Amino acid sequence: MGTSGRRTVRDLRRGNQAMLLRALYFGGPASRNELSAETGLSAATVSTMTGDLLADDVIVEAGQVDSDGGRPRVLLKVNPAYGYAVGVDVGETQVKVELFDLEMNVRARAHYAVRSAKHDPELVARHILAGVDAVIAEGEVPAGRVLGVGVGVPGIVEPGADALVRAKTFGWEAVPLGALLRAGTPLPLHVDNGAKTMGQAELWFGSGRGTSEAIIMLVGSGVGGTVVTGGSIYRGAGKAAGEVGHLKIVAGGRACRCGARGCLEAYLGAEAILDRAGVVADSADEEAALARLLEEGSPVIGESVELLGVGLSSLVHLFNPERIVIGGWAGLMLGGRLLDDIRAATAANTQAQPFDPETVVLGRLGPDAVALGAATLVIEPLFGGTVSPESVPTIA
Amino acid sequence: MGTSGRRTVRDLRRGNQAMLLRALYFGGPASRNELSAETGLSAATVSTMTGDLLADDVIVEAGQVDSDGGRPRVLLKVNPAYGYAVGVDVGETQVKVELFDLEMNVRARAHYAVRSAKHDPELVARHILAGVDAVIAEGEVPAGRVLGVGVGVPGIVEPGADALVRAKTFGWEAVPLGALLRAGTPLPLHVDNGAKTMGQAELWFGSGRGTSEAIIMLVGSGVGGTVVTGGSIYRGAGKAAGEVGHLKIVAGGRACRCGARGCLEAYLGAEAILDRAGVVADSADEEAALARLLEEGSPVIGESVELLGVGLSSLVHLFNPERIVIGGWAGLMLGGRLLDDIRAATAANTQAQPFDPETVVLGRLGPDAVALGAATLVIEPLFGGTVSPESVPTIA
DNA sequence: GACCATAATCTAAGCTTCGAACAAAGTCAG
DNA sequence: CTGACTTTGTTCGAAGCTTAGATTATGGTC
């Protein structure tokens, strides 16, 4: 029983303001009148509130629209230059750092190659810090306008100020990435799993847009995912929820790199699919190799679709989502050709409840969305968050 | 992006009052001072608020406690006689109706035998309505003090005023139980899956108490369950979430009665376990037969434990709960002897994240808790709900 | 230019919570 | 038995918030 809920009358104001800002951010430019209808607040409140926000430069006017024979509506929108967010994608082969404005336009980029299979935590941290400085300089952003840094990493991120990261693929056991970065920058930090940051990108700007209960699968070399409940990412008690890659689909089945058996990831990432097909390919060739398999019509592909359907069926029964998004480069490759098969396989395994296959859709954002999603973690607090504040992994 | 959040200053009051009431209900008798500390509200607010609640008979004084050399604390508690709730358990062999006061003491009971394998919806509805009248009369409850009727049924309950029920075991395709009952009583109705009502009972009064993220497994003849997120039951987009019985554990495995293959329920309810062991038993003998199997040390039992561990591992990875409760008569029978084995099996399949086996515990409430849990649905609105109001399946 | 329609702002009223002063109800030392 | 002390609970004024309704702003139409 979480002791949540607004307490004082100023919390009320904050909450309503966040709601209004959210409506404006996701509902495009809108007039005060429309905002009033959208948020349920009275016109008077919207007026005073927008007045404050305009004075604070959080929002700006955005033209006018004729109104059927009356005073024209003044459109308002979020001021893209009010603040900037840095998004970082810590990947297998590179550290990618991008600077976004509030409208999520990229203002500057920096890349740092990382030699595969050798991910020294301190080196990664140095790359990130260097990248942050570089993009802020290149983007010519006024000091104090950078709202924070979001970092998407592989593996599981423990809650707490140290942001301990466990990533088997990197050989990271309990790397205090948060602490390492904290030593090098005063900016607010948000560290989270890369599949989750990408899921949030897809939720905000991609195929998940507008949904409140959704599953976003990220099928790349491995399998990750994001569970969305109540319009925001579900993180569970220890921020380790949503690990769809380790959903079991075959009791006692193939060994997974996590050490257990029968995980979805033991069958379904590009790595596992190629392994099952007996194809040897290092990570650089995976994409071409998988494409060839698909071209050849390998039976392993059909099996993979069936197994994905089994996994999705479990998710449908557990979460009853309104949408399932399949993303990640391998997921998009498979889904691009075989979406109907995936839908059919899911439906065939979902007999106990009504299920609409149309709810399974492809992602709209490419694999580059990890950094974008990481940046959204930075600006999410502006909108108050639909969930309790402590569930946002901030390190302030 | 749900447009949630308090709007006006009176909503604020309602929310704070609900929070206070919740603290009082679950925190036992408490003084105004303790409530102030518990809720974070100022002493002044607590004072005026408790004044109102006392005047409305929602709460009552409950004795005094000496305070270390000062004015004694006056204890307050929820008034058990403020309101009453009817809980209904629609089971395989009987319809059970119970009247509870606010402290969940049983004030009256009524039972109606139902011939197995012949569950006429209208007959069930008549039994329920008769039972409601009977227990209200027997309990001698003042008119207008009955807050509503909660009904726990098998299968999946669709949202909406009709409360369409789909229950394969009853042969119910789309029974509008809500509409049938609505025609016979003016009381507020709440219809939900029996596994969910029992889960809520276990969450409020049993082994799930105090947790905010939990899984409650109900292993009886079949397998059901409840997923708790943010302190309340997670229902998903169409109120069909949490169907752990149809989590897949063996792709292409045994046929489940739902029509799909490899569901947990195809391996794990008493029915499935006995079937796998080659034992023929009708539902009345299941309990004895399962006990015999356990006594004999049948290898099927060991397999079942292993498979349960696989299923629980999936749930841990997806939900990262702080507690997993195993309930239901078969679950308690297995867990009573083999809890350590279940824990070990779960841990063995959960390699990718830190997992404490101690979080798996046995339920504390018997199988009779379905009606109790159904009654909690009635009084839950008093506490404002941690979630948005529309997610509570009320038919008003 | 008078009149109408729509948008945005201003004003007064009604709630709410809070801090601080104040009242209540005990204990304890002498 | 009295007075000091401690702790609990209440009252009151202050500050903030949202709202309904009145008012002002800004355009078109006849």
From TrEMBL, chains A, B:
InterPro entries reported for this sequence: ATPase_NBD, ROK, WH-like_DNA-bd_sf, WH_DNA-bd_sf
Lineage: superkingdom: Bacteria
Name of one Pfam family that matches: ROK
Chain coiled-coil ranges: none
Family: Belongs to the ROK (NagC/XylR) family.
Protein name: ROK family transcriptional regulator
